[in-house]
Amino acid sequence: MKVHADRDRCIGAGLCALNAPSVFDQDDAGLVVVLNDSPSDAEAADAHKLAEHICPSKAILISDG
Amino acid sequence: MTDAVERGATCPVAPRGWPNPLLPEYDQLPEGRPLTQVTMPSGSKAWLVAQHDHIQRLLADDRFSVEPHPTFPIRFPAPQELLDMIAKDSKNLLVTMDPPRHTRVRQMALPDFTIKAVEKLRPRVQELVDEYLDRMEAEGSPVDLVQALALPLPAQVICELAGIPESERDTFTRNAAIMVGTRHSYTMDEKLAANEELMKYFATLVTEKQNNPTDDMLGNFISRASQTDEFDHHGLTLMTKMLLIAGYEFIVNRIALGTQALLDHPEQLAALRADTAGLMPKTVDEVLRYFSLVDEIIARVALADVEIDGVTIKEGEGILVLKGLGDRDPAKYADPDTFDIHRDARDHLAFGYGVHQCLGQHVARLMLELCLTSLIHRFPELRLVESDEPIELVDGLPPVHKLMVGW
For a tag site, which of A59, B68, B283, B324 has the least CB within 10 Å? Predict the structure, then answer.
């Protein structure tokens, strides 16, 4: 799976960096940065939960392959 | 304002009781809590949204607006004069702006609210917690935790974030406490007077910081905003006042209620003492979920027909988000009325959802984490003490006046 973040949608809530710090970070402006777009299985589970339920602006996108 | 009203006729509003802070009227919502249409005092139609999944989907949907609108669901009967004032002030408040302006203004404040920026506050907040606990210990058991820690700590942290000089902090904290209802005995006149004094204070503070920029959260925001034409001076004054008092009541209550919940669950408290690093993040989220009480301030109006689960919310109809119920949704959380620090409640709605999710949430998390951690380790024998004044949660913003603890 691939992780992508839409910085135009991001509102800088920072919950991605809080809950999956090996996959996501916040830049100095507060917007999402993807640190690792091909996470391990355990990280992928967190990324899915973030994308589906936690990220309030739906800025995290996950695709197959 | 406190009378329960018939479902289907108007929006239910009632005082909240303890220990079950959810409105009893909610029991009348249909099984499974699908969307329920109600009529607002103004006569316009709105929908109560109580399922976790519905709340997330609708609050993330940009076809709903938070800006003033003729049929925006306002839950109290309001004279036109008050509505006009709200509409005028709301042009300057982050919480009542839609994108794209909301996006621009939020980004002016955002750099000082990131996780890394808030982490830099950790040593200072810990120092303050330690000072308050020193005083509490010196005072001797029992003490009122609200006055000893839950109330003064957030006030001090907010004043430091804002760069409010020591000599002026009393003015801020006294008036902020009156305005947000930390003591519900204040009258509307007293609240309006407090608001006026705060507005005068912030008008001066904004001018001072425009003339002599300071490197603090408020100084940085005013510098960034002053380089644009988003706000006039009055607008900037309103906005800075909102930034500072928005989360004040919220965090005071969560420190008190979180402590109370842990003391009510000794086995969980023992587990938390034994593995604080492992369990505290979950504990903080569970406290936020369990006490996700401020329902009726989240409202939107539909700018288009929106279909959800076979129901069409028509253009011009409102939604009222009952996030206290959403965070107790059995379809989302097993055994939702049980306080359980072992559950994964990271997706709670306590800070809202969608683009307006609380800007200061990491500051709130930090204060809650450090207060709970320090309290349970500093006082291994901490216990609740019977008080002759029962805990009472009153209407919309529930103040906790007193929590007697001993050790």
Answer: B68
Q: What is the pLDDT along chain B (407 residues), one digit of tens a residue?
A: 222 223 332 333 333 434 344 555 666 677 778 898 888 888 889 998 989 999 999 999 999 999 999 999 887 777 788 788 888 888 889 999 999 999 999 999 999 999 999 999 999 999 999 999 999 999 999 999 989 999 899 989 999 988 888 888 888 888 887 877 655 567 778 888 998 999 999 999 999 999 999 999 999 999 999 999 999 999 999 999 988 888 787 888 899 889 999 999 999 999 999 999 999 999 999 999 988 865 556 899 999 999 999 999 999 999 988 888 899 899 999 999 899 999 999 999 999 999 999 999 999 999 999 999 999 999 999 999 976 665 555 444 455 777 889 99
Å between A13 CA and nearest CA of chain B: 7
- Residues of chain A in contact with residue B354, where contact means CB-CB under 8 angstroms, are 56-57
Residue A20 with chain B: CB contacts under 8 Å: none
Domains and CATH numbers, chain B: 1-61+63-98+293-327 (3.30.43.20), 99-292+328-406 (1.10.630.10)
Chain A neighbors of B362, CB-CB under 8 A = 14, 18
Cα–Cα distance list, B190 to B85, B176, B181, B196, B399 (Å): 18, 12, 11, 10, 17
Task: Inspect the interface and report whether the beta carbons of A30 and B352 lie closer than 8 Å.
Answer: no
Instruction: Quote the tokens at residue B28.
Output: 């009348």
CATH hierarchy code of domain A2-59? 3.30.70.20
Q: Provide the residue ranges of all domains of chain A, joining segments of one domain with +.
A: 2-59
The model's pTM is: 0.91
Q: Which two tokens stand for residue B187?
A: 């009258």
A19 vs B116, B346, B355: nearest CB: B346
Q: Say how far apart CA B253 and CA B218 lie, in whole Å.
A: 24
* Residue ranges of A 10-49 with Cβ closer than 8 A to chain B: 11-15, 17-19, 26, 28-30, 49
| Amino acid of residue B234 | H
The ipTM is: 0.95
A-B C-beta contacts closer than 8 Å: 51
Q: Which two tokens stand for residue B179?
A: 């305005």
> Could you tell me which of B295, B173, B196 has the C-alpha nearest to residue B245?
B173
CA-CA distance, B103 to B230, in Å (whole number)?
12
